[in-house]
Amino acid sequence: MASVHESLYFNPMMTNGVVHANVFGIKDWVTPYKIAVLVLLNEMSRTGEGAVSLMERRRLNQLLLPLLQGPDITLSKLYKLIEESCPQLANSVQIRIKLMAEGELKDMEQFFDDLSDSFSGTEPEVHKTSVVGLFLRHMILAYSKLSFSQVFKLYTALQQYFQNGEKKTVEDADMELTSRDEGERKMEKEELDVSVREEEVSCSGPLSQKQAEFFLSQQASLLKNDETKALTPASLQKELNNLLKFNPDFAEAHYLSYLNNLRVQDVFSSTHSLLHYFDRLILTGAESKSNGEEGYGRSLRYAALNLAALHCRFVYRPLSLQLALQEAIRIAQESNDHVCLQHCLSWLYVLGQKRSDSYVLLEHSVKKAVHFGLPYLASLGIQSLVQQRAFAGKTANKLMDALKDSDLLHWKHSLSELIDISIAQKTAIWRLYGRSTMALQQAQMLLSMNSLEAVNAGVQQNNTESFAVALCHLAELHAEQGCFAAASEVLKHLKERFPPNSQHAQLWMLCDQKIQFDRAMNDGKYHLADSLVTGITALNSIEGVYRKAVVLQAQNQMSEAHKLLQKLLVHCQKLKNTEMVISVLLSVAELYWRSSSPTIALPMLLQALALSKEYRLQYLASETVLNLAFAQLILGIPEQALSLLHMAIEPILADGAILDKGRAMFLVAKCQVASAASYDQPKKAEALEAAIENLNEAKNYFAKVDCKERIRDVVYFQARLYHTLGKTQERNRCAMLFRQLHQELPSHGVPLINHL
């Protein structure tokens, strides 16, 4: 079809297949698809008021604009679209096109002659200045300019277009009749759909200016708001290459090519397309027309700024990023462009955010953005400040007050994207502080919100980073509570919403790997957990190293785990990653008491507790107190361990993961049993009964996350307690369950008292 388009119309701007000027100088031309649309318009005008219902006519009117502005589509797809709106009219259009294609050339000539009658009379069917009227006039004018040979080629193309559409309709009918097996029918349908899409992409020839602009704006909107509904990266690039073949100086096509290459993380092609975009923007003079003499310089400074943003996006060549940013700042200062300078200031913060004094730069950026009336930049600056203060350990009420102020800006200026970011930020802050219930509420609030931004074609603005973050938090929160089926459903939706080649796919990939790792560790499948470490490391090196140390520790490779944790501790302290520093300290302490050195573990635990209190990480503080209580139990002071547990257990039971709840209740039972050693017989029996109740609760928690290794420890402990109380039947039941689990699972080789 592309070859038909190229040979059908004489293009004075093309010599030997090379375009020498803007092909969009020709406003419109006739194609077989546009003849089909003209037939539809003609049939609509001929159909009486009573023949088509009001709802059908309304659907047809809504269908017309995308048909007039969009790229050419196959005849079978056009029939399908018309049939969905008005089946009766679809049949009339099909018969009319068939008569024209199977008739003679004079039938097409007569059809175009009759089109002019639409404008005649005192009350014409179509107004000349309406959208449909302008389209009809363009088509009539373009057809009248064709030579006889070109008219003949157009008629031949129409016949071919009709035959392809009929062939596709017959194939669909045959497939529905002959398919018996449901699975095979689904597979064949999917293959057919793919071939049709590829055919549509390959058959699109040179687009008119309106078609090209509509196609580019539609695809750009889909890439921003709902990437899954946009063309695949390969198909979109093929379309853009076809568009640029006829008009290499079309700047917007180069920019969409840049966005498309970002989807597949192609640094070289992204840079190439971005540079071409700004080159063409300067050459076409579009900037100078709208901005006077400033246009040329404005393009140059924003080109440098976009290049810096591109390098920052790929965390790639810091020196080139710095140089591009310096170039943008220099040109902006020469031109006295305060808006561009504010953007540069924001990127300077991103470049140097690891420095201790970066918050000064950020505060200055927020003040300047407010002064120059840039609410978007001001709000982004406040969001970044809140994030920085959260990591610095500021209280939650101050952070939420700051976010409330930024929310006022969002609602005032209808900045829907920043409203989503703000809610996702609140979700992350509540999780950082260990308030899972509040985090869950914020995540669900974001997912139930309707976007403020008007998006065409029923597209929701839900493939942004904030939605990905909220969904990942939701999956992790469900997995922590043992709801693995719900977590799988959330991850399945994430995979559909954010395909593997999309920008934010790494978020759900890491989340999925972490959940699988935790499940494997709970099941005692350390070999499977070890195989997942590689994938986690590829996505997050620090998290991967920590998980590797956890696996080594579980496999009793203490010296290797200790070396890895010490290296990780030094690295995280340099990066000021407080959350990971505390987790590493807790793991090192566990190594010491599992090596029968609980006294060495105490300084580590106290350091972790001090950090978690300083940075207000409530949940990590509770977990540290839990570890301190266990250390005191090992050291033989269970009464103090019990008093410590009463401080820590409430936040764990309120907001903790199911596994941590089980560990807490198991530890309470151990402390109760150890404390009961000095009691008299009636009081001791009462204490042991209370311990058994707590063990039952711990066992229920462990069963929810399918942690068989810990269930084995619990039933062993219960069997011993029942034996002490003389309850033979209960003891035997627990002993039988322990034996079954012990045969199924490998022994961890660590005494029960040294295993939290």
Automatic annotation (TrEMBL):
Entry keywords, A to Z: Cell cycle, Cell division, Cytoplasm, Cytoskeleton, Mitosis, Nucleus, Phosphoprotein, Repeat, TPR repeat, Ubl conjugation pathway
Major subcellular location class: cytoplasm
UniProt entry tagged with the keyword Disulfide bond: no
Signal peptide: none
Gene Ontology molecular-function annotations: protein phosphatase binding
Start and end residues of each Anaphase-promoting complex subunit domain: 254-354, 459-491
InterPro entries attached to this UniProt entry: Apc5, Apc5_dom, Apc5_N, TPR-like_helical_dom_sf
GO cellular-component term (any): spindle
Keyword Nucleus: yes
Residues in Anaphase-promoting complex subunit 5 N-terminal domain copies: 30-168
GO term, biological process aspect, one: protein branched polyubiquitination
Pathway the protein contributes to: Protein modification; protein ubiquitination
Subcellular location as annotated: Cytoplasm, Cytoskeleton, Spindle; Nucleus
Pfam families (alphabetical): ANAPC5, Apc5_N
Subunit structure: The mammalian APC/C is composed at least of 14 distinct subunits ANAPC1, ANAPC2, CDC27/APC3, ANAPC4, ANAPC5, CDC16/APC6, ANAPC7, CDC23/APC8, ANAPC10, ANAPC11, CDC26/APC12, ANAPC13, ANAPC15 and ANAPC16 that assemble into a complex of at least 19 chains with a combined molecular mass of around 1.2 MDa; APC/C interacts with FZR1 and FBXO5.
Family listed: Belongs to the APC5 family.
Task performed by this protein: Component of the anaphase promoting complex/cyclosome (APC/C), a cell cycle-regulated E3 ubiquitin ligase that controls progression through mitosis and the G1 phase of the cell cycle. The APC/C complex acts by mediating ubiquitination and subsequent degradation of target proteins: it mainly mediates the formation of 'Lys-11'-linked polyubiquitin chains and, to a lower extent, the formation of 'Lys-48'- and 'Lys-63'-linked polyubiquitin chains. The APC/C complex catalyzes assembly of branched 'Lys-11'-/'Lys-48'-linked branched ubiquitin chains on target proteins.
UniProt-listed PANTHER family: ANAPHASE-PROMOTING COMPLEX SUBUNIT 5
Stated name of the protein: Anaphase-promoting complex subunit 5
